[in-house]
Every structure is written in C-alpha cells, then in structure tokens.
Amino acid sequence: MGFMTDADRLADLAALLADGTRAAFCLALLDGRAWTAGELARHAGVVASTATEHLNRLVAGGLLAEHRQGRHRYLRLAGPQVASLIEELTAVAGPPVPVNGLRAAKVNEAMSRGRTCYDHLAGRLGVAITDAMTAAGYLDQSSGFALTGAGSGWLTGTLGATPKRGRVLARSCVDWTERRPHLAGAAGAAICERLMDSGWVVRIGTSRAVRPTEDGLVKLKDVLDLTFEP
Questions:
Q1: Which residues of 26-44 are buried (b: 16+ CB within 10 A; e: fewer)?
Q2: The domain containing residue 199 runs over which residues?
C-alpha cells in the first residue's frame, strides 16, 4: 500500500462531497439529529439502493457515523468538526441562490432568520447572540473566539447553561447566510441546548429552522440585552 500524502487525503475528502446526493445528505444532517437511511433517501429524491451506496462512502470516509436499532440504520454527522466543515464550505460556495415559489422562499427566509448548525445556533439569531455576547464583554473576538471570565460566569450562572467537557469551549463558525461568524464549540452548544430546553427558542416543523418565542424574546433582552427582530 502506497503512502498517502496530505494532498491525497484532501482530494479524497473533496471527492466525498463532490456529489449532489452526498452533499444533500450532509446538509440535512446539519440539524444535529440522526436520520434513517430511508428518510435521507426520500429527502434527496433517490432510491434506497442509491442512498445506501452513497451513505456507505460517507461512513467509510469518516464524515458520517451510523448505528443500527432493530431493522433501522441511523446516520448522523461524525461530530461538530464535520458540521463546521460543511457549514463553512457552504459559505465559501457563495450566497444562497434565489428560489422560485412562495413556499421555497418562506423556507429560505426561515433558515436565514434562525437555524441549528449541528448543535449550535446560526442564521441572524445565532449571529445576533454572538454580537450581543461580544458587546457585553462575554466573548472576545480580537484573536479568534474566546469566552472571557465574565462570559463564563454569565453562561453558567445567569443563563444556567453547562458546557460539556472534552471539546473546544468557544470557536467561530462562518455563517453561510450572514457571511459572518457565529459562536460554536461547547459554549455555543450549551447556549443552544439551554434556549431550546427552556422554550425560548423552538424548532419550526421538522426542519432545522428555529425561531424565538415571545417569552424567549423577553428573556433574551433580560439576560443579554438583545433585541431581536424576527
């Protein structure tokens, strides 16, 4: 077996995403949930055998992880690092393409307004929270993203969110609709989980689009001095 160079490995990774069906699978899985192979096949508009072939390649390439429960095969992104890669590649690909039809336009607007990016918040809502944290002195963006001492106290005290150990606390993730960074990492995930669990932010249907509730808008103003226009 020959030695694989960095260029070879990068080319292999790029090849995994150089297919519309596989890219559609990865984008769908940015909602952070596990999907069955059948759900992904229907989402991408392909037959089961075609979906299986593509999913096997994504699992073998390390972009997806799978587990089986009974006769169902569940798949999800292999981790937050993969989610960040997909989101940032989408941003590099350019702004969203205008769509035809009222329903598609409404879906795009909802996704731009607020959505989950794997386990953290993105869109205008995610960027607004990031900016409000920076203005309050909770997040330092001067050299990458770093939670300040005051930010750590606000996160675990005022907000009551607990970041999980074993991963980077705060990092930037380029928002593909806003073209600006939003907060990711353990802190971003903890904020998203807290806002969703508290009912301040709710998912719209089965998509990864989210919106703040009326109570959530009041609470965000209280804890972060954030005024968000839905």
A1: bbbbbbbbbbebebbbebb
A2: 83-224
Q: Which two tokens stand for residue 75?
A: 């798949």
Q: Which of 141, 160, 136, 151 is nearest to 224 (CA)?
A: 136
Nearest C-alpha neighbor of 48 from the set 79, 72, 78: 72
Which residues, at least 6 apart from 150, have a Cβ–Cβ distance to it below 8 Å?
A: 136, 137, 138
At 209, give phi and psi (nearest 5°): -70, 140
How many domains does the chain contain in total?
Answer: 2
> Do 62 and 76 form a contact (C-beta atoms < 8 A)?
no
pLDDT tens digits, one per residue of 31-48: 888 999 999 999 999 999
Residue 1 within any structural domain of the chain: no
| Contacts of residue 102, Cβ cutoff 8 Å, sequence gap at least 6 | none
With 0-12 / 13-18 / 19 or more C-beta atoms within 10 angstroms meaning exposed / middle / buried, residue 74 is middle
Digit-coded pLDDT (tens) for 92-112 = 776 666 656 666 567 678 888
Please tell me the pTM assigned to this model.
Answer: 0.78
